[in-house]
Amino acid sequence: MEVKGTLKSLLSDIRIKYNTFSKAQKRLADYILCEPEKVTLLSITELAGKGDTSETTVMRLLKKLEYDSYQVFRINLAKELTEKPGETLNEELSEEDGLATIKKKVIKHNVTAINDLEQTLSEDTIAEFLEFLAASKRVLFFGVGASASISQDALHKFGNIGINVCSHPDPHQMNIICAHSTPDDLFIAVSHTGESQEVLNAVSIARKNGSKIISLTSYSNSSLAKMSDLYLLSSTNDKKYHSEAMASRIVQLTIIDILYIATFMQNEDVYFEEMNKSRIAVALNKT
């Protein structure tokens, strides 16, 4: 019996793929994430009972996690808990939690989500992003609602080093810009669900004009991901007391930071000079 190594975290894989699970599979995933030690002692029938589902559903979940054997799954889970004690638990908030517990759990959840980027954001993906960026003459960051703040953060960072960037949170303006886009434009669309109609409309227009599309989304099976030349996954399983995309927003900001630093280090001397120009310009508004 072959037991998989721990280079790929099992619990992290569950969090990353959480948005692709069925409702019954999510119940199982929630239990595994909240009670991983107990799961290592459960039979497949007992685990199915914890999720109020069937053994067949358990095996379908394991298939998505690339496991053919429940026994191997349990052994690898136990091994992960032994090698990384305290790093795997991600407790749900409850109504009884005090302020200290709330603070601890929210920090833990956000840190866990960021750490999952070790698996979701590969070096090859970053390199591919850099290739798209180098081949473009203009970069446009689009997002609406909460995602607009992610786009604005990216605009500030990349514009600060002299890259030709723009961002428009207004859907009408987004469509107008996209209507005049060219194959030299790179669109980076941000949407937690990947189903924001305003973003999908803008991307559809830009695609018809031959522009390249990179998306930042939490759902690999979303409409936006499917329309993109490259997608960057910010998937997390946000808790029921969290606002929509709370941890995902933190992850997306971290991804933007990684892409920005990777870009800067590609041509450090040039970008450092451009950054100084920005600093001097901003200093005019300071006393």
From TrEMBL:
Keywords: DNA-binding, Transcription, Transcription regulation. Residues 129-269 form the SIS domain. Residues 8-84 form the HTH rpiR-type domain. This is MurR/RpiR family transcriptional regulator. Gene3D superfamilies: Glucose-6-phosphate isomerase like protein, domain 1, Winged helix-like DNA-binding domain superfamily/Winged helix DNA-binding domain. SUPFAM superfamilies: Homeodomain-like, SIS domain. The keyword Chaperone does not apply. InterPro entries: Homeodomain-like_sf, HTH_RpiR, RpiR-like, RpiR-like_SIS, SIS_dom, SIS_dom_sf, WH-like_DNA-bd_sf. Coiled coil: none annotated. CDD domains: SIS_RpiR. GO terms for molecular function: carbohydrate derivative binding; DNA binding; DNA-binding transcription factor activity. It comes from the Bacteria. It comes from Eubacterium maltosivorans. Pfam families: HTH_6, SIS. GO terms for biological process: carbohydrate derivative metabolic process.
